[in-house]
Write a structure and sequence with these properties.
about 220 residues, alpha/beta, Rossmann fold, five-stranded parallel beta sheet, two-stranded antiparallel sheet, binds BIS(adenosine)-5'-pentaphosphate
Length: about 220
């Protein structure tokens, strides 16, 4: 499995696909959103800095996430490949990633972009429910839990993420348009971008993702 970035708007299905890719290829998912949410839950200095920005639907400063990812990529479990989910999100983050990987003698092999129109994004994010204990993700109508409001895996009460409320979703979409969308042409210019139609079912999207990744070498 190569070194892969999953790109896409908030709610495009990056986390959903990342979990399937981790199960298939046995490589670690590095989700900056998950790392930051854990820091917020634990009340660490990072969490105290990031929490108010995340809850306002804004990006956290580049230097915070760049440092987190640089250290994470040095861990032994990343030596056989990694899957970045939600990073990079700005061109300076992409440039910093390129520099960090180059210092390690590594490169990004593929950038998979999940293409989903804004109206479908809104429907997905507003219907998302998350398990605060294990991180499992559901959708109230498209992929509901077996028992309404409870996680299939551990029975915890499902929550709506603070930044999944309508006004926050609009802010996140505008941050995406202003700061993240330009990564698509940036990576296309490097011959790395592989676009996937993200509007199909999770399994159908996964088949496309596996296809564009080829045999993973
Ligand atoms: P982060 O956690 O990365 O949020 P995001 O990018 O907004 O992505 P989401 O987790 O909302 O969605 P997703 O694409 O993973 O979709 P999912 O699979 O859950 O970041 C949160 C915040 O942290 C940011 O706003 C920012 O403040 C900060 N942050 C993080 N990284 C940062 C960085 N690098 N720089 C600066 N700040 C950073 O799916 C969504 C819903 O749709 C679910 O209900 C799911 O069941 C459903 N669904 C998924 N796929 C399908 C499908 N194919 N068909 C039908 N339903 C589907």
């Amino acid at each position: 499995m190569p070194n892969v970035i999953l790109l896409g708007a908030p709610g495009a299905g990056k986390g959903t696909q990342a979990k399937r890719l981790v199960a298939k290829y046995g490589i670690p998912q590095i989700s900056t959103g998950d790392i930051l949410r854990e820091a917020v839950r634990n009340g660490t200095p990072l969490g105290q800095q990031a929490g108010p920005l995340m809850s306002a639907g804004k990006l956290v400063p580049d230097e915070l996430v760049v440092g987190i990812v640089r250290e994470r990529l040095k861990q032994p479990d990343c030596s056989g490949g990694f899957l970045l989910d939600g990073f990079p999100r700005t061109v300076p983050q992409a440039e910093a990633l390129e520099r960090s990987l180059s210092e390690m003698g590594r490169v990004v092999d593929a950038v998979v972009e999940l293409d989903v129109p804004a109206d479908l994004i809104r429907a997905r994010v507003l219907g998302r429910r998350s398990c605060p204990a294990c991180g499992a993700v559901y959708h109230v109508s498209d992929s509901p839990p077996k028992v309404a409001g409870a996680c299939n895996q551990d029975g915890s009460a499902l929550i709506t993420r603070d930044d999944d409320r309508p006004e926050k979703v609009e802010k996140r979409l505008s941050e995406f348009a202003a700061l993240t969308r330009s990564l698509s042409p940036w990576y296309a210019g490097r011959g790395l971008l592989r676009k996937v139609d993200g509007t199909a079912s999770p399994d159908a999207v996964f088949q496309q993702v596996v296809q564009v990744l080829g045999d993973g070498r």
